[in-house]
Amino acid sequence: xxxxxxxxxxxxxxxxxxxxxxxxxxxxxxxxxxxxxxxxxxxxxxxxxxxxxxxxxxxxxxxxxxxxxxxxxxxxxxxxxxxxxxxxxxxxxxxxxxxxxxxxxxxxxxxxxxxxxxxxxxxxxxxxxxxxxxxxxxxxxxxxxxxxxxxxxxxxxxxxxxxxxxxxxxxxxxxxxxxxxxxxxxxxxxxxxxxxxxxxxxxxxxxxxxxxxxxxxxxxxxxxxxxxxxxxxxxxxxxxxxxxxx
Length: 246
Hints:
Elements: E1 15-23, H1 29-42, E2 46-47, E3 52-54, H2 55-59, E4 70-75, E5 78-83, H3 87-100, E6 104-107, E7 133-135, E8 142-148, E9 152-159, E10 164-175, E11 179-188, E12 192-196, E13 201-212, E14 215-227, E15 232-239
Parallel strand pairs: 11-15
Antiparallel strand pairs: 1-9, 2-8, 3-7, 4-5, 6-7, 8-9, 10-13, 12-15, 13-14
């Protein structure tokens, strides 16, 4: 991805046209490392008009050889360990910033489960097979600034032309979670222990609202997404030889 030397370009006077932040301060150290590494790899990227940003091309493969560590990722509707866990928060933060800057999104995919750091229909899942991409469709070059300070990751886009855009997420349906009982012979007969609390899924819509002189002039539906519910899992004791706690 090209880098633009702002200091030596007299005709280019960039201003902040969009910014977006998300919180990751309670993440594990490995996840924090991945977030901060991905942010550094994107920071300073410049896109000329009609250039396309590719998250995967810019950040590179999420491997140990490329500096990433193992942390929780979402895979097939479950949280599992995987190298590069946390980078989707970076892609989602940049995605929202790109929306607010009026960029044209050319490739986006939601997670299978809701995430905590952005509203439904405003996440951007990336993997070795799935990329997040957008095109600079404004009249001049834009510069991406991405900084992660241990608590927040902040994406900023600097350019010449700005638009006034607000994001809007609407939940249109709730998908109730199920409860599953699993027999466990390490627990006394009849004792129940919650292994996973479960979480409802949902169907959502994402909108961009455009404003001029403080008044909304148009609203655009950009996405419809479905996020799976997570089962509530209860372990049920089956061992009659263990004492029941009082």
